[in-house]
Every structure is written in C-alpha cells, then in structure tokens.
Amino acid sequence: MAFLSRLFRRDDPLTEREQARRQGMRDARRHPLGEFTDPDFQPAFVAEIRARARERITEVDRRLAATRTVLLERALGEREVILRELGRSGTRPEPPVNGHAPAEDETDEQDPFISIAEARVRRAEARRRALVEEANAGVQRARARIEHLTQEWESALLERDHEVEAVHARAEQHIAAYKGGVLEVHPRKEEVPPLWKGEVVAMEATEETATAISGREEIARILREVEDRIEVWHAEVMPQEVPTGPRQLPSPPPSTAEPAAQETSETAEATCDRGGEPPSIVADAPEAGRHARHVPGRRASMDPGREDG
Known about the structure:
By secondary structure, the protein is an all-alpha fold. It contains 10 helices and no strands.
C-alpha cells in the first residue's frame, strides 16, 4: 500500500489521521460490507498498520541490542583497566627479612637513631603505599564507570519502552481514524463491532525481553567479578590497622596490707567473744612496738589468781 508508506513518513499527526479517515470512507464504499461487520475479520488497513508497527518495534529492538553490545564492550574495557591496576608491580608488601616484619611508619614516635637498612625499608614502604593509593584510585574510577554503565542500560530500556509506546499509540490513532471514516459511510454501521481483530495489541514489557535480561545480567556479573578481585587485592596490599588509643598500663598487684588488717580485725573479734581484751594493733613505728611488749604484763597484773600468790 503506497498510501500507508506515505502515511508513516508524514510528520503531522493531524494530517495522518485525516488521511486515514478518508481511506476508511473509500474502503467502506468499495469493499464488501461484511468485511467491516465480521468481528473475526481483520480489515486490510488494520493488518497493514500493525505490520508497519511491528517493523518499527523491530527496528527499536535492533537499536537496543546494539546499545547493549556497546555497553558490554565498555564494561569489559573497564574490567581490563581494573585488572591491570590490580596487577601493578610494586604494590605487594615485601616479605619479612630474617623473620622480622618491615618497620611501620610511626609519625608520632619516630626514632631519630635508626640504621641505614631500617631507613631503606621505610622509604621502600612509603613508595609502595604511594603506588597502592594510585592504583586504588584508578580502580575506584573504573568501578564507578561500570556502575554508570548499569544506569545507562536501564535508561536505554526506559527509552525503548517510550518508543514502543509511541509506535503503538500512533498505530491505534490511525486505526481509530480509519474506523471513523468507515462508520461515516457504512450503511450498516450499527453492525460494526466495537473492536476489530488486531485493533488493540498488548505491549510487551521491556524488562521481560531476553535482550533486557541478558544485558542486565552481564553487566552485573562483570561488576561482581571486579568487586571480588578488588576485595582480595585490598587484603593483600593494605596494611593492618594498628590501634592508636592511649596505652593501657598494667594494673598494680593487690596490696598485702589489706588482708593482714582484715585478719587482725577477725582475731580481735574472736578474743572479745571469749571474754578477753582485744590485742592492740601493732604499728610499724618503734613506739608502737614497745607499747605492744607491755600488753601481756598488763593482762597478768589484772589476773586475781596471781596477786594472791
């Protein structure tokens, strides 16, 4: 149909719908009446409109597949960048020398008197950490670009949905205008069904298509792979964190004076229970020692049996 080819090349929606309406009027006069009253029959115009719509949707899906290929190639390129940064030489720590681990850089407490070998080790460690920071920055930038590719893919899927919706809406507008022209001149317009066969078509969601699923899964797989490799690399090259809090001093051993004082108090309480005088607590001073030696004499003078003797 040359008319349909011209119709889909037009840019003015009003002109397109007017052309479809006039085509419906001409077909209603020329075609058999039963062609428009049979609900199981699809008019040739409707079939052609739907075929054109499918061609446009196929073209949209072809562009989406091309976008998927480009995004996957870019994701693989960023993966290679990450692997190259992770494999950079000089980022792994040197093995221990003579059973001793390399010295750490302590900015708070630096020994001004260090050996030449120790200074060499510290300079090598500083260069290694600078390389690690540079490689890590490149890795994080490449990883962020892969995440951005995921967003670009989702945006491409949304754009495909909008284009497909526009194609279906345009086809339905043409069919509705054509049907309006048929109803204007058809002698048995009351017998024309509400919907012709193929007049309304359900649109398939883009997220359920094979292209959308495969694109999303491939980019996610690449992102998971590089994240696992980055995690392993961090464990190999990043130094262990050393706590920088205040140093905890060991608690002093318990004093022996407290148990001794407690034992003396218990002895005094036991003596009072037996009716005697509690012994004096002897101090460490010499005066207290002399006073303590007279305590037994005092107890003897107070014994009535000894005075009678």
